[in-house]
Amino acid sequence: MNVTWNPAAAGIAALCLMASAALAQDADMSWTESPWGPDDEIGAANRLSPELAMAAAGLVTEGKVYSLGLTLDRDVPAFPPRSMSVAILQPGQVNNAGLGPTMTTYNDDIFMGWLGIGSQIDGLGHIGVDHIYYNGNDASDFVMGDGMTKLGIEKVPPIVARGVLLDMATFYGEPIVTEGTAYTREDIEAAAEAQGVEIREGDVVLFHSGWLDLLKEETRDAERYGSVEPGLGKTGAEYLAEIGVIAIGADTWGLEAVPFEEGVGVFEVHQILLAHNGIYILENMVTEEMVADGVTEFMFVLGHAKVRGAVQMIINPVAIR
Fold first, then answer.
1. From its phi and psi, is residue 139 left (phi > 0), alpha (psi between -120 and 50) or beta?
2. For a Cys-Cys bond, which of 43, 50, 69, 72 suits 316, CB 3.0-4.6 Å?
């Protein structure tokens, strides 16, 4: 059974009534113009460079590799109505001993599900403002039933950059950060200072809250996990956008604080990052082991499946210290 997101439990239904007022910030349409030009489709990934990759490689001192992706199964965290299943087949091998004189047999698999499930990257065509998406792209011009003709996930280059991990659980003094806690600009600055790490242009920033502990057998609370969460607040998102980071991720299903902050619109942090600034969102990142090892900066590497026209993608990025 999939983990579900419950707007009623989160109090989001009531907050939705505030959405029209919160959208007043979008009267200024300057955000629809990319600093990289009218043809830009990759946003903050324009900041990637050989120099950035070389600098990230220089952070590797032990060669320890961390997998940041969840193992996928039908119980994987999923924003409704997303789900997945796998079917194993043995094509052309029924009622026979196999293929050819060597009796070769093999198993194949069919994946049936959504690409925005489990550990995932949100592409720039995922979230918009009244059907307008990154760089002023109107949904009616590029969103087709069989794939997007712009902003597809296949456009995103491999991401190799310096990674920064902020341990918000330790910062707030909680093993699992309380739902609705919004990481403000001031909180992010203070957490980074406490860890002795600086966030720079071109970084990938990850937040650890302990929220994935709610999916462990001994502390499992799937309903709580999927209905609310701590996460990035509006001022925190604006701050990281000012710095010029490439991607922001967390060990939660939706990155931003839910219930939403007072006066903040429905998934407005997603709008600020994806639609306004072309900054990628990484959800359900497994950060526990790195926190246990005291990792604060590392080499971040992400190469995803390049499915043409897709909105999101299941990922398993790695961190190397």
1. alpha
2. 69
Hey, what domains does the chain have and what are their CATH numbers?
A: 7-320 (3.50.30.50)
| Structural contact between residues 66 and 319, judged by C-beta atoms closer than 8 angstroms | yes
DSSP-derived letter for residue 272 is: I
Q: What are the pLDDT digits (tens) for 179-214?
A: 999 999 999 999 999 999 999 999 999 999 999 999
Instruction: Give the CB-side neighbour count of residue 271, counting CA atoms within 13 A.
Output: 20
pLDDT for 14 equals: 41
Cβ atoms within 10 Å of 25's Cβ, excluding its own? 16
3-state secondary structure string, 276-287?
HHCCEEEECCCC
pTM for this structure? 0.92
What residue has token string 């597809």? 152
| DSSP sequence for 100-156 | TTTTB---EEEEEE-SSSSSEEE-TTS--BTTEEGGGEEHHHHEETTEESSS-GGGS
Alpha helices in 36-118 (DSSP H): 50-57
pLDDT category at 217 given cuts 50, 70, 90 is confident
Is the previous residue joined to 259 through a cis bond, with omega within 30 degrees of 0? yes
Of 145, 127, 162, nearest to 49 by C-alpha is 162
